[in-house]
Amino acid sequence: MSKLLKASALIAVGFFCALLVLRDGAHAERSDPVPAGATMDLPVQELRLFSEVLGIIRQNYVEPVSDGDLLKSAIRGMLAGLDPHSAYLEQEEFQELKEGTSGEFGGLGIEVGMEDGFVKVVSPIDDTPAQKAGILAGDLIIRLDDTAVKGLSLNEAVKLMRGAPGTDITLTIVREGQERPLQIKLTRAVIKVNSVRSRSLDPGYGYLRVSQFQVNTGRKLRDAVTELKEKNGGALKGLVLDLRNNPGGVLTAAVSVSDAFISDGLIVYTEGRGPEAAQKFSATSGDILEGVPIVVLVNAGSASASEIVAGALQDNGRAIIMGEKTFGKGSVQTILPISESAALKLTTARYFTPKGRSIQAEGIEPDVPLERVQLTALEQPFQPLGERDLARHLDNPNGKAKPATSAAPKAAADQPATDTKEVSLAKADFGVHEALNLLKALNIVQSRAK
């Protein structure tokens, strides 16, 4: 072996030993046990291959590359080869991750992942430049301004999308059903995510939108429910919980939201290789809605923590899930700091619903499937004839029938077919409209059963 290769071998062995030391340090910080003799399991043959490749690159690559850059690239490669969600985070990326879970960061407002070398939109975040410009879950971003995405890492693509508020960027996207790529110009902004929004739909019926799961989402949701109750005379008849295009977030926030509506029983459990990865989360006593019906809206952009909530409420029989099959991200990522300025985001477990279902790559099947549609109201809806419109019809013995003036149907302006507010809701958001109708039907059934 040449001197260069010998030197490379020393670097490689030192590199892997350093990894083991950092791993031990991270586990010590988490108080997790480290298997005895872990340092004795180094794959010698693969280390030789690594050192040989390292030496060839150092000697023959067209431009000089520092050992530090090569080793960091090796770390990134190791993690990228595991699954789409594991990654090596340097200081800037680590900080961005913390900002995302706290609810304020700069950029376009898109939750993204990688698919076939392109950036895939998991979901746009509410009230952000991306959502306002019409970016949809499932869009593939193939170009950022003049830079092709193919060949970039996810972190590199995210850096290009981030920038000073007020600056512009043009995304070229491929969308299912569109023959040609679309170009959408966006203006960057400071993204402040309000994870919970609420409003009343009809007297007694509330609407809660959870856009992502942050550290304080559980508390905000409980406050929002209390406010909805106060606005509706102290109680609700039903609640629509909207988790559509919610990319997930903090696991404990998903547990807190589920716990708000479940008085007892299992919420979610996780399983991994180590004993520290096995956890169970159960509900505490008390349901803030006291059994009031809930309809949960989901779609293909509902991922991770959203699926935990939907699965928990579904398996416990606490809510009806309506919409589309969810994204199917059923894995848990743990942040393992390895220095003051870097960390590993490592997939350490799978999570399971209370009935033992793994959602990984499968998603949550809705109880009531609902296609994405947009309604258009007829300007003059046809009014069908009724018995009372017929000449010489029999009178109602209760005196409620009105005398017919003509056999012709009434004008649309005189007899509106549907309540204007109901039509507006159906046109604005068909999913919420259908969820509200289902809640009303459940209340009718419950009241008649009593």
From TrEMBL:
Chain segments carrying region Disordered: 390-422
Gene Ontology BP term (one): proteolysis
Family under the similarity heading: Belongs to the peptidase S41A family.
Domain of life of the organism encoding this protein: Bacteria
Keyword Magnesium among UniProt keywords: no
Comp. bias (Low complexity): 400-418
NCBIfam families named among the record's database cross-references: prc
Name used for this protein in its record: Peptidase S41
Source organism per UniProt: Immundisolibacter cernigliae
InterPro entries hit by this protein: ClpP/crotonase-like_dom_sf, CtpA/B_N, PDZ, PDZ_sf, Peptidase_S41A, Tail-specific_protease
Key words of the record: Hydrolase, Protease, Serine protease
GO cellular component: outer membrane-bounded periplasmic space
